[in-house]
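Methods — Computational structure assignment.
A single polypeptide chain was analysed. Its primary sequence is given first, followed by the predicted tertiary structure written as C-alpha cells.
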Amino acid sequence: MESPVNYTYNLPPEDDENQDILDMADSVRAVEKLLNYKFADKKLLEEALTHSSYTGSASYQRLEFVGDSALGLAITNYVFLAYPEVDPGKLSLVRASNISTEKLARVAIRHGLYKYVRHNATALDEKVMEFAIAIQEEDDAEVHGGLMKAPKVLADIVESVAAAVYVDSNFNLKDMWMVIRDLLEPIVTLDMVEQQPQPVTMLFELCQKDGKQVDIKHWRKGERTVASVYVDGYFVASASSEQKENAKLHAGEGCSAEVVIQIQ
C-alpha cells in the first residue's frame, strides 16, 4: 500500500479578485503538469476547476456532464479490447468499477486535485478532509470502496478535468484517454473484480442459498437512476447514480448479509 499522503487545501481568498486570478493561474499550471498536457484553451481547465458555489464564473457542471459520458465510453473501449473473450456482463462489472463515484473520488484524493478547485462552500472542505483521512488505510486493490461514502464533488472533478481535455483536443477520445489513463491508475481489472465479488452478485448468491427472491427496480429521478433492492418483497436498500450500473452496485452494497438473513 502506498504511504499516506498529506494533502493541503488552497481555499479561495475572500474579497480579493486579483489574488484569486493568480491562484487559478497557479492551479492551471499545476494540473497541466500533473496531466502532462498543455491546454490550448486554458479557460476550459479553469471551468473544470470551478465549483457551482463559486460565483462570477462558469462552473464545471457542463463539463462534468460531458466527462461522465466520455470517460464511460473510453473505459468501455478499453475493457472491450483488453478482454476479447469476456461476456458483456463481466465487461459491465469491470467498466462500472472503473467509473464509479468511489473509484473516481479516490483518484481525486490520490492526486490532490481538490486543492485546485475554487469554491465558496466550506462544508466541502470538511467532507473531503474526512474522506481523505478515512481512505488512507485502504488497500489500493479495493474495488468497491470502503465504509465511508465518497463525496460526489471529488468524482465530479475528475470527470470535468477529463472533459476539459476531451473538448480541448477537439473531442478526440483517443487523445483524452492517453492523457487521463495514468490518472486513473490502478485500473480495476477483471481479476480484481472476480477476487472481490460485486455486491449485487453476492446478494443474489446469498439469497439463492436461503431460498429468497431478489428484485431490483430502477427508475429515473431527474438525471439520475435510482435502484431499489427488495428481498421477498421487503425493501432492503436504495441508491442513485447518473449511471444505472453504479446505482445498482451501490444499492447492493447497502444489503448486508445480516439484514437479508433476518427477512422471514
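Note: Residues 1-19 have pLDDT under 50 and may be disordered.
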